[in-house]
Amino acid sequence: MRFLTLVHGPAFAAGAVAVLVNRWGIGPLWYAGVGLLLFGLVARFVTTQAQRPPREGEPDAVAVGLPLTGSWTAHNSPATKVPSHTHALAQTYAIDLVSRPAPDPVWVWPIARRPAAYPAFGAPLLAPADARVVAVRDGHRDHLTRTSLPGLLYLLLEGFVRSLGRPRHLLGNHVVLDLGDGVHAVLAHARRGSVRVAAGDRIAAGEQVAECGNSGNSSEPHLHFQLMDGPDIALARGLRFSWRYQDDDGVEQDGVPPNGVTLTPVGTART
Questions:
Q1: Architecture of domain 62-265
Q2: Phi, psi of 114 (to 5 degrees)
Q3: Tens digits of per-residue pLDDT, 30-78?
Q4: Long-range contacts for 14-18 (Cβ within 8 Å, ≥24 apart)?
Q5: Interatomic CA distance for residues 116 and 8, integer angstroms
Q6: How far is the C-alpha of 157 from the C-alpha of 228, rounded, in Å?
Q7: Deepest of 8, 21, 83, 166, by most Cβ within 10 A of its Cβ?
Q8: SS in 3 state form for 229-258?
Q9: In this predicted model, what pLDDT tens digit does every residue of 97-122 receive, in sequence order?
Q10: Strand 183-190 relative to strand 202-203, pairing
């Protein structure tokens, strides 16, 4: 499975190039290109299905602390749809959190904005529980936003290209934490140069690990958060989680908010 996760993207890209540059009709190069395209698609399907959580006997939701302070709004929430993103890269129950108010999306102009125009940019990202740092990435740039129609179209193309490479191209700057008992957390799209921890570090719940940014496959500064059952995002399966938070009406809840609900943390649930 590890082999398939590494080669499906390059195989698909090589097949597409072979078909596009072929000028001799149906022949060896065309067959090679189509073969690589099919292999890439099948390998991607197999690896994605391998990361689908079991339909029966799935563990209960893991209670963790909200990795942010202040008020945030849920997007792409597993409380609204499962998978919230995709089964690939253990994102079955992942969630995106944005800060509002922020510049409104537009149809055409401005095509893009600097990430500093958004209140989420630079906000502290916190450890959701006592943990050991498994892996970090801190070299990806914080690109311009993609919230206009042309920007979103570009994001779709960009995301497809990123998906052909390693997971870090989608996650951008990120931190992977081992929370114990086989539970691992991912905090992604961090601001370049903001990661404060290194692999092997022991950290406490609520400790700052980075800042919110706009790196990787991101339309605007936000936090992508997920739990998974292993340290390798390309092989693990997503896990359900729950937060203790206050909703829009100030009512305390245990769980995950659906899309559009604004939440503020109540406390750290797991130590």
A1: Distorted Sandwich (2.70)
A2: -70, 145
A3: 889 999 999 999 999 999 999 999 877 778 899 999 999 999 999 999 9
A4: 15/39, 15/40
A5: 35
A6: 27
A7: 8
A8: CCCCCCCCCEECEEEEEECCCCCEEEECCC
A9: 999 888 888 888 899 999 999 999 99
A10: unpaired
